[in-house]
């Protein structure tokens, strides 16, 4: 079943890179998938579909731009929250260039969506079934999709920083796994990178309240980590958000090794550029029951981190 939100959801926060306050309002929609609308821009087309082919920058976050040059950045955590709770249609109004970072995870978006609830949208739900392996590889970076009946995410990271090190985890994205296992895992960076980014006018809104900051073998946040392998879990959260830009749920197994937003987007481009690597399928109830957001509801609030 296609779904949307029962009611509007308004949230305020700060842009991680701009440091500017931003307000978003998630509106129910009955078609069009997930779309962003820059309400502060009125002299051009201000609607940006949340789609892989609108991705124009992945340096520090996933940034989408439309043909009029109107863009919205840091969409990945909100996209993960929408995919992980099963929202297929919504119009997201934003009054600036960057989705607020909130606490650095998808937790606040997920909680707001679960509290508001979902409404069905008439019409069958289509998904993208992976038929043949596709991969993007560059040096030590790998992102690949292989055929599977349910979306799974298998991720591996290997950082020289002792506080992070090598972490690997694989999870099938069903039975509310995203909400229970990944949604509360925060973005992270090195203390030494913070000064460099600020010198370049980036991460101006960053703080220990919205990112895990590591320095060698230490985590600088007073509260420490939320999970012992929070780092790799956040990368899995990012992967779900970036895969949600496929335009429909994916039935396939994703594997990422040191992959970032750019690698996952290149993988989606590879998928769409490879004839015979995927097909549209109309989901029956049985298959739809295994989607990332299937069966997730208010009862999951206490387990949403
Ligand atoms: Zn992230």
How would you explain this protein's 3D organization?
The mean pLDDT is 95. It is globular and about 50 Å long. The chain has a five-stranded mixed sheet, covered by helices on one side. Strands 12-13-20-14-15 form a five-stranded mixed sheet, with helices on one face. It has a three-stranded antiparallel sheet with strand order 6-7-8, with no helix packed on it. The protein has helices at 76-85, 107-116, 177-182, 191-199, 230-243, 261-273, 285-288; strands at 2-5, 9-14, 21-28, 34-38, 47-49, 55-57, 63-65, 71-72, 90-94, 118-121, 126-130, 134-138, 141-146, 152-158, 166-172, 188-190, 212-215, 218-219, 250-251, 253-257, 278-282. 22% of the residues lie in helices and 31% in strands. It is α+β, with helices and mostly antiparallel strands and 305 residues long. The protein binds zinc ion (ZN). Zinc ion (ZN) binds next to helix 1 and helix 5. Zinc ion (ZN) binds at residues 76-77, 187, 234, 238.
Give a quick precis of the structure.
By secondary structure, the chain is of the alpha+beta class. The protein has helices at 76-85, 107-116, 177-182, 191-199, 230-243, 261-273, 285-288; strands spanning 2-5, 9-14, 21-28, 34-38, 47-49, 55-57, 63-65, 71-72, 90-94, 118-121, 126-130, 134-138, 141-146, 152-158, 166-172, 188-190, 212-215, 218-219, 250-251, 253-257, 278-282. The longest helix has 14 residues, at 230-243.
Q: Profile the largest sheet.
A: 5 strands, mixed
The ligands found in this model are:
zinc ion
Calculate the terminal CA-CA distance, rounded to whole Å.
26 Å
The ordered H/E elements are: EEEEEEEEHEHEEEEEEHEHEEHEEHEH
User: Count of DSSP E strands?
Assistant: 21
Average pLDDT score:
95
Shape: globular
Task: Name the strands of the widest sheet in spatial order.
Answer: 2-3-9-4-5
Beta percentage is 25-35%
* Class derived from helix and strand content: alpha+beta
Pick out the low-confidence regions: none
Helix amount: 10-25%
Q: If you compute it from the alpha carbons, what radius of gyration comes out, rounded to the nearest whole angstrom?
A: 18 Å
**Total count of helical runs of at least 4 residues:** 7
């Amino acid at each position: 079943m296609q779904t949307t939100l029962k009611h509007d959801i308004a949230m305020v926060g700060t842009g991680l890179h701009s440091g500017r306050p931003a307000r978003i309002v998630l509106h129910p929609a009955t078609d069009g998938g997930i779309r962003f609308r820059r309400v502060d821009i009125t002299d051009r087309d201000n609607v940006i579909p949340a789609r892989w082919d609108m991705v124009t920058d992945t340096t520090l976050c996933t940034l989408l731009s439309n043909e009029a040059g109107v863009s919205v950045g840091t969409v990945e955590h909100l996209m993960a929250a929408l995919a992980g709770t099963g929202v297929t249609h919504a119009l997201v109004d934003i009054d600036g260039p960057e989705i607020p970072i909130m606490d650095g995870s998808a937790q606040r978006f997920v909680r707001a969506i679960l509290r508001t609830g979902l409404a069905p949208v008439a019409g069958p739900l289509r998904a993208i079934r992976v038929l043949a392996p596709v991969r993007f590889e560059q040096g030590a970076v790998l992102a690949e999709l292989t055929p599977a009946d349910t979306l799974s995410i298998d991720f591996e990271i290997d950082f020289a920083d002792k506080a992070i090190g090598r972490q690997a985890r694989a999870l099938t994205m069903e039975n509310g796994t995203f909400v229970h296992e990944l949604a509360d895992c925060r973005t992270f960076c090195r203390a030494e990178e913070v000064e460099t980014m600020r010198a370049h006018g980036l991460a101006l809104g960053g703080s220990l309240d919205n990112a895990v900051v590591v320095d060698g073998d230490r985590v600088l946040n007073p509260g420490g980590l939320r999970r012992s392998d929070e780092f790799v879990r956040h990368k899995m959260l990012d992967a779900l958000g970036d895969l949600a830009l496929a335009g429909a749920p994916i039935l396939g197994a994703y594997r990422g090794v040191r992959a970032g937003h750019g690698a996952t987007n290149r993988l989606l481009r590879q998928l769409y550029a490879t004839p015979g690597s995927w097909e549209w399928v109309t989901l029956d109830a049985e298959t739809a029951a295994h989607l990332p957001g299937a069966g997730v509801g208010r009862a999951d609030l206490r387990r949403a981190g």
